Amino acid sequence: MDDYLNLFVEETSFYNRIVLGTFLPESWWGPLPHWFQGWLRNYIGGVLLYFISGFLWCFYIYYLKRNVYLPKDAIPSNKAMLLQIGVAMKAMPWYCALPSLSEYMIESGWTKCFSRISDVGWLSYLIYVVVYLVIVEFGIYWMHRELHDIKPLYKYLHATHHIYNKQNTLSPFAGLAFHPLDGILQAVPHVVALFLLPVHFTTHIALLFIEAIWTANIHDCIHAKVWPVMGAGYHTIHHTTYRHNYGHYTIWMDWMFGTLRNPVEDEVKKM
């Protein structure tokens, strides 16, 4: 068992060497405890992913495709985006504690994670990924909904994110502009799933960081019309009504629990 758990430690150590070794002298991070190396790596990776994805996406939709996807009066001001960046950067050190904690629990053998796809086979791996995503979708839907329905949670946590409630105040940089505890709570289903079914370790880590790209995408106010994806068109409605479209990747949970509102139908009604 110890030999198998060492596979997880070797993998996280490999990631540490790639990220920390690229940006910092080894004499700075080498003596640090393994868990702290993981947090620092997640922090550097999270910041880079946030800024690279945010700047590239904003450059594309607000500059290269200016007035193509969004009318001029729907483009957020630089001031609004800088405020979003400030909120996200204050929360980023805390966000990175969650994947660091999940890595520690995995390395300690507390979860059902497996290291190699060959341990379960490709068919089982794919089934586990699908079930994992269903658990995450269900968990994030209800966590998000309760952050609205439970008034103290909304007032002291989620309201920080909902000050961005119009097209011209939303941008890809708003994707991680949360109160730190709010952002962590909405990501907790990723960790809970590790105790419920076997999950491939690398896939779990990758999906956690894909969250940063996904949240940037759903705050750009562009309705992609890709069924059943809970894209920015649906999420923009969530920011304007506060009572619809709590889902994460798909519309299914909102459809099942009666909170779905379709942006296409909204446009027809306005016409």
Q: Characterize the overall form.
A: globular
Query: Structural class of the helices, strands and pairings?
Result: mainly alpha
Overall average pLDDT: 91
Uncertain segments: none
Major β-sheet annotation: none
Overall strand count: 0
The run of helices and strands is HHHHHHHHHHHH
Q: Rg, please?
A: 20 Å
Give the number of helices.
12
Please characterize this protein's 3D structure.
With 271 residues, this protein is an all-alpha fold. 64% of the residues lie in helices and 0% in strands. The model has no long low-confidence stretch (mean pLDDT 91). The chain crosses the membrane at residues 43-62, 122-143. It is found in: Membrane. This is Fatty acid hydroxylase domain-containing protein. GO terms for molecular function: iron ion binding; oxidoreductase activity.
SSE map:
Blueprint: H1 2-23, H2 26-29, H3 34-64, H4 78-95, H5 97-107, H6 122-149, H7 151-156, H8 180-192, H9 201-217, H10 232-241, H11 252-257, H12 263-270
Helix pairs in contact: 1-3, 3-4, 3-5, 3-9, 4-8, 6-8
Brief rundown of the structure:
The chain is an all-alpha fold. The chain has twelve helices and no strands. InterPro entries: Fatty_acid_hydroxylase, Sterol_Desaturase_Related.
Give a quick set of tags describing it.
271 residues, mainly alpha, 12 helices, 0% strand
